[in-house]
Amino acid sequence: MNIVNKSDFIASIVLFLTGIIFYFIIIPQEIIPEDDAVIGPDLLPNICIILITFLSILLFFKSISKVEFKVTIDTKKTDSSILDSSTILNIRNDFSSIEIKRVFFLLLTILISILLFIYLDVLVASFFLIVGSCIVCGLRKIWVIIALSTSLISLAYFLLYKVLGTAIG
Amino acid sequence: MSFEVLSSVLTLNNISWIAFGVLLGYIVGVIPGLGKGTAVAVSIPITFYLSPLTGIAYLIGIAKGSTAGSAVSAILLNTPGEPSSAPTALDGYPLSQKGQASKALKMGLFASVIGDFSATLLLIFLAAPLAKYALLFGPVEVTAILLFSLTFIAALSGESLIKGLIAGLFGLLFSTVGMEIETATVRLTFDILELYDGLSLIPVAIGMLAVAEMLVQLGGLEVLERQQKMLKGNIKAINQSISWEEWKLSIPAIIRGTVVGSTIGILPGLGASVASFLSYGLTKKAAKDPSRFGKGAIEGIAAAESADNAVVPSSLVPLFALGIPGSVIAAILIGAFIIQGVTPGPLMFVQQPDLVHGIYLSMICASLLLLFIGYFGQKLFSLLSLVSLRIIIPSVIFFCSVGAYLQGGGIVGVWLILFFGIFGYLAKKLDFSFVTFLIGFVVGPQFELSMRQAIAITPSFDDFLNHPIAIVFILVTIIAVWKIGTKKKKIN
Predict the structure, then answer these.
(1) Which of residues 47-66 of A touch B (CB under 8 A)?
(2) Is the ipTM of this complex over 0.85?
(3) Which of A123, B8, B71, B143 could join B450 in a cystine, given CB atoms 3.0 to 4.6 angstroms apart?
């Protein structure tokens, strides 16, 4: 088997399995149709999941065939020089190890701050979220981290609590 | 337009919020990686506390400001604030390196304002007549039009037709979470009480757009910082004016860009990137000396920026006339409309004409404010492009969490941005169109309702044949998908 596009190959398998799990386990458990309903509430979810499963099979075959099923906009082709040199567009399509590490730790920071919010306090959670994100992003100057977290929390408090009259916590 | 509309728009409160929106949008646009989708999604919770007119005008101001602002970092850093400004960098950056950054920035601003203003007028003249026809559509026609829009967007907005369709179907699937209206059956809630009302658009949009974008940007911190270091100390306050000769070269490019941007904006799914690249390409083709392009041709900036900015107002035409979002901004705006108790679509012109006229007038005000703020804030915005992403990412993540908490039903909203942040990050990285996902998610409830009604009123194929408009749209859908699919194969 000649895998042309590895990411599509993996995505197609994951999507296929998701489709199967949804169709045979999740939808029957989570949507129990009424007997007298003319059109069942599971109609659209079932249509979606059947089509997703079918398309994932197509994606699988495209990812192992020699012809890549990709499109390039004509204009993109002519002006590829700028696309190659632009930072924003370059970082999109590949996973670097440093990026995966940072993404993992940022998500972990958000997760821990949610737990801190639930079990401790909104202020602690807010500080943890900002300080943790700063550290994940590679910010090391303590005064910048303190100034940023203090000013952001104060701004949110002022804008949302004082100006707009919202209650948080 | 009545005097009441004028007096409701031209209040200090309304104008201040529009100006704040444009300013905020400009700042967000200047900073590489944030983008108008992020800015509008994060700002939606604030609109809850504003009047419908002010809230919508504020969000449109952000979208307009952000589109224009993205040219600044493209010209100064060779790093477009948004992908649609990439062709601006092609000539803007060489001009900047020649010490003519100020001139390039001014042309970018003028072209942006002209493109934006003209497309706003187009929206005003086109949406109402289209809406009159849309009012004649029944459930069968609506289902066919939604099916056409979704398929068309899926086929064009991503790099792969299959992936686009999968993304759109996931959007539809997630829209079914919660209580089903007709049978009161709870669907896909996993016994989480907060999900019984369905997934709120705001945490979904914030997760898919803002959080996912920040996760993507984490990978490019060093690259951007290198560009910023090169620029440091190079921003000079030279007040360069654009000569008449340069205007003569740029005016046809601006007209061309406005026409291209407006046309592409109306078509669902194509987006600003296609418009700006196409306009740039056409201007280069039409030039007497195309070899100047890529080396600092000022009309290249004019062509790209006018098209890019014309897309924002014209992409609202299908939203206002048919209630169908043709772009991410339009999809997010639906969320804002719903928060305000307004259903965007043809009925808006009948039920709330003053609101529609007020939005139009506010959009014109936003265009003028864009010129004013962009012109006088040029130096400040240039300096803003040096702000490090290491500061921006924590700030955005914090405000995303606050926004999701406020409008996403409490802490469950923050859980949702975490989930959809990961989902959006993978979608962006693996080229699954998040635009199609969001539009599928937004139109999902309407699609399901009209599909159910359509099935009920057309039990047989003969009944279906009595709906010629629906048949036309279904045929167009099939032809469009077939044509696009064939073209993609040929390109490869």
Answers:
(1) 48-49, 51-52, 55-56, 58-59, 62
(2) no
(3) B143
